[in-house]
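Narrative of activities, Objective 1.

The group set out to show that a structural description can be obtained from nothing but a protein's sequence at a throughput compatible with the screening campaign. Below is one input-output pair from the validation batch, recorded exactly as produced.
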Amino acid sequence: MRGASQVVIERQDEKSTTEPQVRFPSRSQSQRRVRLKKAPAETVVPDRNPTLVEQALALSRGWRMFMVVVFALSFVLLITPVVDNLYVTYMFNLETRILPSIVSVVFGIAIYALGWRLLIGYIDETPKPYAITLWYILGGLACVGLALILMLIGLYSNVRMITI
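Output recorded for this entry:
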């Protein structure tokens, strides 16, 4: 067995009637016999820059939650006029006036749930960087950018709100 203490039994001579002498090796001798090779120190060499998904997943959990909320809200801001226009054009009924809001909220919750799964994950879990995560982040950034552009266009245009 490697590393175990070895007992050396010596006989003084063949004609001696005394019992054999038992000698235990000293600590320094046992250390000399067992030479452990030290593993070389691991050096981490960055071979590439982290991707956008890896950078997003490296953020703290709170920032990832904030990012998912902003993406979902900007998506809802973008689809609300489209859903309202489709509803007014094809399905308008006074009894179902709340329907466009419900549809927009359902789409927003779906985008939020998808973002939660892709970017936030469960407790004590960092999600893996999937390709769909990149598409979610790019789509979310596009939604935020487009929503900001449309708000700025609305702010600086001379269109006044019509109040009845």
